[in-house]
């Protein structure tokens, strides 16, 4: 491919709107252009990389006998109303009406559509298990799209769905997809981790995320520095062992805590450790008030609370509602004396391991000292509601938790019967009885994957693409296109390399060598070969993008040199 014929609108300056390296270099290197906030056009170089990523995905999907299909991007709202997600998905969902005033959505994902197709066509367990997938645009109206392709409103996704007659079929499909995803992310050259994750709006329970390690990632990953444990911070746990409290429970007494508004204020006034303040956080879970008790030196984990309650929505209660139900303001709230028909009480499991806590008395400026959970409360539920801390012992007891940032590139879910039970997805089992189809859902954000690879594969000058996804294998540069001998040797080398199976970009532009080399570094093709002043001696210069040293080679041996060097690259 001649570079003079390829649309690569490179830029020298750093675009003002770009904050992270992947976005900066994609704009400067002419890979993408923004059409609107969070909506991008993929120019030829980016499109070539995406095609290579998709080819790898298709190869690995074929290995697990997954069927590729293609669903519509515009979906009747009735399907999402059947599953209930139309009412719970939130403002990220694009909604529209046709000329007959019928409701439609722009698909953010396709569980409902696949469930409908499979439910209509498969009625017997003999046709299962089945895995289907597609590669398609998705649409989510992000409140604050940012960092280029990392968080956009329109993006490319590979979404797959498994349909099974029993739990074993789901487990087998989940395991097969998990293995395939690991192979895909290895093949595209990523440093990634598989972590325990929250199923969120997808429904179902068991799920895992695949996170590309990157300082610019939006997610925090907690992992053991000695074991295999890894989880999203939303799901991360600390080591816990049920213990009998060491201290003897003392009589609960009322104490003054004037003008305190936070757990730290309470600890400072009472001259006790922040940990000994059992703070009370109040939420509205769907239509029910819930109070969560936890040690003062921890933050509440809202995802854990929401999952424990099986709630669709969880928000912190406002001050007026709190005062109406507790007869006190924030800073003096506690569980004693609450109307438990109106307020559910949750207590973190760590409170059971210690005695004599300080807790709000539901009187402004007052706390109870020596609060003991099992003695002083009779109707509460225990669970893990803490946000894990870095440095805490890993829940598997192996090492300590270390935090890093990551970019979510894939997510797999065991949906169970969440969709099939609501949408008529039943089959006749081997005993002749109707039973719900058991489903799994599996996604890879392809455009985000492109950005994640870019975040990990660069230096100060531009990209260093892994050879498996690079837009071209070799960048062949003619130093002086006015020199007929250089042009002829370039054509000869191009033919040899292409015959050997290499994908070659030939820089035949009438530009200065400095411009060509700078653009070559920016674009990031794995191997560069230069035809220059030594063309008369049939000498070439070869350099890998990830190396600083240049090697002189003979034009007669260019293919063997290129193969050897290319095989060394990742």
Automatic annotation (TrEMBL):
It is an enzyme of class 6 (ligase). SUPFAM superfamilies: Class II aaRS ABD-related, Class II aaRS and biotin synthetases, YbaK/ProRS associated domain. InterPro entries: aa-tRNA-synt_IIb (IPR002314), aa-tRNA-synth_II (IPR006195), aa-tRNA-synth_II/BPL/LPL (IPR045864), Anticodon-bd (IPR004154), Anticodon-bd_dom_sf (IPR036621), Pro-tRNA-ligase_IIa (IPR002316), Pro-tRNA-synth_IIa_bac-type (IPR004500), Pro-tRNA-Synthase_IIa_type1 (IPR023717). It catalyses: tRNA(Pro) + L-proline + ATP = L-prolyl-tRNA(Pro) + AMP + diphosphate. GO terms for biological process: prolyl-tRNA aminoacylation. This is Proline--tRNA ligase. The gene is proS. Belongs to the class-II aminoacyl-tRNA synthetase family. ProS type 1 subfamily. Pfam families: HGTP_anticodon (PF03129), tRNA-synt_2b (PF00587), tRNA_edit (PF04073). Consists of three domains: the N-terminal catalytic domain, the editing domain and the C-terminal anticodon-binding domain. Residues 48-466 form the Aminoacyl-transfer RNA synthetases class-II family profile domain. Homodimer.
